Amino acid sequence: MTLKATLFGATALTILAGAALAEYPERAIELTIPAGAGGGTDTSARKLALLLEEKLGQSIAVLNINGGGGSVGTSQFIQSKPDGYSLFATWNSPLTTVPQVQQVAYDIDSFTPIASTSETAYTLCVKQDFPASTGEEFLAELAANPGKYTYGNDGIGGTMQLAAERIFQARDIQAVAIPFGGAGETLQNFLGGHVDVYGGSISPVLPYVETKEAKCLLVTSAADVSALPEASGLAAVGLGDEETLLWRAILGPKGMDQAIVDKLAATIDEAVNDASYVEFLASKGEIPNVVKGDALRTRLQNEYDALAKVSKALGLGQ
Amino acid sequence: MGFFVDATTAVFAVGPLLAMFGATLLGVLIGALPGLNPVMAIALLLPLTYSMEPLVALAMVAGIYNGSMYGGAIPAILLRIPGTPASIATTFDGFPMAERGEAAKALKVACWSSAIGGIASAVALMTMGPLLARVTLFFGPAEYFWIAMFGMASVGVMVGSDAVKGILAATLGLLIGTMGIDSLSGQPRFTFGQTWLLGGPDLIVVLVGLYALPPVLQLAEKCDLRGLSSAQLRLESVPFAKGELRGFVPTWLRSSFIGIGVGILPGAGGNIAAFLSYNAARNASDEPETFGKGNPQGVAAAECGNNADNAASMIPALSLGIPGNVVAALVLSALTIHGLQPGPQLFHQNPVLVGGFMVEMLLTSVLILLVGGVTATRMFAQIQRLPGVLLVPSILVLMCVGVYVINGRPIDLWVMLLAGLAGYVLEKVNIPLAPIILGMILGPMAEQSVRRALLISRGDPTELLTRPLSAVLAFATLGMIVWPMLKLLRGKRKL
Question: Contact, B268 vs B445, CB < 8 A?
Answer without folding.
Answer: yes
